[in-house]
Structures are given as C-alpha cells and as structure tokens.
Amino acid sequence: MNKKKLLPLGVLAAVVLLLAAALAVLSSLDADETEEGVALFSTPADSVTAIAYQDDESNVSLTKNDDGSWTLDSDPKLPIDADAVTEVLNGVTGMKAARSLEGSTLETAETGLDAPTMQFSFTAEGANHTLIVGAENDIAGAYYVQVDGGTLYTVDSSAFVGLCKTPRQLYEAQDITDIETSDVATMTLDTGDEVLSFTRDSDGNWTLDGDPDYALDQDTVSRMSSTICSLTTDWSITSPTADDQYGLDHPNAIVRLTATDGRTVTCTFGSTDPDDEDVAYLRASTDESVVYEIAANHLSCFAYNKESLKAATPETATAETAGTADSSQ
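Above: the chain's sequence. Below: its structure in token form.
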C-alpha cells in the first residue's frame, strides 16, 4: 500500500527535475541572447551623411562633406576630427539593447521619454532615424530608449559614456607649419623690447646676426625653432574679436622662421593673464583670419633677450658651482 502511494510521488519528483533542467537551459539561452544584445539599427556607420545629438552639455549637428570630412553646422570653419565623429557614429549605429520592451505598459513619465536625457538623429541611405534616451534605471544600470518613435528598449548605461562629444572634443588640432626643424635657415625673435635675428648653418649651429662671435646657448635657440615647427593648437577661434581680447595688441613675442627653400611662417603670441598657466593665443601667417588657443607654457620658450641667450662659459659654470657650494655651507 505504501509502495503504491510512493510511486506517483517519485514520478512527480522526476517531472519537477525535468522541468528545472529545461528552465535552466532556457535561462542559459536567454542569458546568451542578452549578452549578445539586440541591434537597434542595421545602418553602417560609414553610410551616415548627417548626425545631430544633444544632452545637458552639447547640442551638436554635423554634416558630411563630399571628401569624407565633417562640418560643424554651427561653426563651419572649425576643423573637425573625422575619427572623433566616427566614434560617435559607431556608438550610435552599432548600439545594442539589453532588452526589448515591446508591448510594455510602462507610461512615458516612467521611462523619462517625456523629458529626454539625450537625443540622437541621423540620416543614412536616404532614411532618417532617431534615438530618444529617457531616464536611467539605476537598479538595472540601463537607460530606457526609443528607436524611430516605436519600440522601447533598455540599453546599458555604459553605451552612452562619452558619446555626446562637445565641439572641443571633436576638434582637430592644427599644425602651425609643415616646415621641419632641420629645414630652418633663419629665425627672428621680436619681444617688443629687442629684435634678435639668427642664422643656422649646414651643421645646425646658430649664430647671432650682427654679432657672429657671440656665444649663443645653442639648445635654447634650437628649442625656439623646434617649438614653432612642432606646435599644434588646442582650439580655433574662427571669428575672433579685437586683438586686445587675446593680448595680440601687445604680443609677448613675434617669431619668424624661414626655411632653406624660402618658405616662411610668422607666429604672434599673446596672453590675457600672465598668471594663466593654461591658455595663450597665437596668430599665424598661415591663416591670419583665425586666432588659435595654445598651451601657455609655449610662451616661456621665447621669453629671452640677448643676455639671457649667452652660453655658459667654463668660468661661469665654475663660479656658479662655487656659489652653490658656498651657500650650502
């Protein structure tokens, strides 16, 4: 009698185990699908011809040119780094959702789509697409997003980190000149108080024009030349105001290089705050319609006069060493 009662229980236990195994398999498959993600768009990044996006810090609109370069619609003259734009395009067109919420009963206010955190729109292959990013679900670590005004998804929060690049983050740094240091033949330094001209010989040695026997500090003079040849900008002010806004009305220095093939470049350096260690300004003869922002530490390379450019002699070095020794006693 007891054995007959136990038999159905054994069958029931076997069924439960079977269902548990099946559930584990389905859960595993579902996890694999979640890890793989759901592609939001089937558009290749290189087919995008225009993109716009905005968040709390950025409101950017970009248009692709026939040569593959990009233009910032609000500042068409600003140089844009195509690789930086590609990062944005790859992030948007290649985005994958963690879950599809198709058929969800969530209200718009719950998902934050009534007050978007971010918005993206782009044109590709003649079609327009939108991606609206709503509120972040802190527990899930994901944002609610809506694609093309239709299906709702959740997308991992990490997918949006650094995606809304500001114009400065899209900026392509500019080289001031293509003259190589080894090609420089002459240089002039005008600090406002003094004008010094230098000539470089075929061995790379500098002499001071008008006083060729003057013992120049070769490393310091060479550093002036190489600074101009290697200088890159931090930003381009494409519609500059008056020179006094950048300290260019009373320049810190004006430097002119001439290459062996006759090419020249003239750089005028200015600053608005002598104590500002971050930003200085530059106008270059390569494009005088623009004022560039550069790192302020470049100014120190040209803060010299004839006396301070004199090379240390053995006697000077010995005296300085002795002075140091005396002061330490």
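Residues 38-170 form one domain.
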